[in-house]
């Protein structure tokens, strides 16, 4: 309930700010050249927004019907930000909490060691999904990708509680479901980009809100699994945490859900370079905030920026999840160290909401520097040391802030037509970095934390070479 109230308040404030900015931008454009052509394009966008409202820039549509678009903004925040974003926590962490119940199920011939193997298929699928995301985004816009992944995850939530009960194929089907499960986890980056394109200029605040709610959902899920639903059968527990948020997200965020679903087969069948616009429309009208535009050639500077940002993604995920896998190395009481590290994410989300005021790239550089220096200093510490745990918590806060800024950078450094290449590339590098986190996190603290710190310092150097904003004159 608190998350819904916070989301509603944020949506109202966001709609008000969008309306003010829209008035100012409209006044400035009235003195520019080509005013009539811009108004014609705007009328076309508003007319089209009645069919696909959440795909258009709400800042422009605000002038047509403020109340209607305020409600639409709230639906996008609740459906995409909360249901798809914050409730990614169960999809990433719930298997660890319920696998012991699955192993104890007398109807399933699965042991704990087999379930540990199946957990690795989630991470393998996450990497494969990042690879498949690029060709997928060549054919679909961000809205269609979100709907496709959301519907797939809804079916997987049912398959995860039915497939393992098929005799002789329990392990095979469980691994297959979790492989697809991991592939769908790439919805995280897509929902970040979609919300930033719907609410340009509010990337840091939106990402911070989603990450804060994500941390709260993770805490609530852990408390529920350990107390309220501890004696439950694992199947209704999994169905509630996996399936219910997907159902709510699909129907709340997308009023035209059936229309989008029916458009998927033809969109997937067309050539990646096929334009969505008709022969009579100009190329300028095809440039929409959805991220599915006619392909253009990336310049050398754009490739260089993509290399630097993808390196930041790899180092961030490597160090961030490395700390998540290091509770046993930090303290003889792993539950305490894990609680402290995860609780620090909430503080970091509050700080990351101010990253835009401080400067996105400046906050990113300083975040990497603080995390790098803190973790490298742990080479002098020992297990159960207050110094080591304090430095690890400080580094985790800095990395959580960076986790927001790198996704905001995707929308600010690259134009919309380039994001369909930049997002999958960065996600692939992030998943590659994450594959090394568990093994390095299991090393002694004087070895693992300095390695994470060196990666952060390398990312700080790469961040220093990134521009603050996309500059059209460079391309």
Automatic annotation (TrEMBL):
Segments forming a coiled coil: none
Keywords of the record: Membrane, Transmembrane, Transmembrane helix
Spans traversing the lipid bilayer: 72-94, 114-133, 145-165, 171-194, 206-232, 238-262, 306-323, 335-353, 365-383, 389-410
Domain of life: Eukaryota
Record's GO cellular component terms: membrane
Organism of this sequence: Symbiodinium necroappetens
Record PANTHER family: SOLUTE CARRIER FAMILY 22 MEMBER
Membrane topology note: Multi-pass membrane protein
Main localization, broad class: membrane
Compartments it resides in: Membrane
Record protein name field: SLC22A6 protein
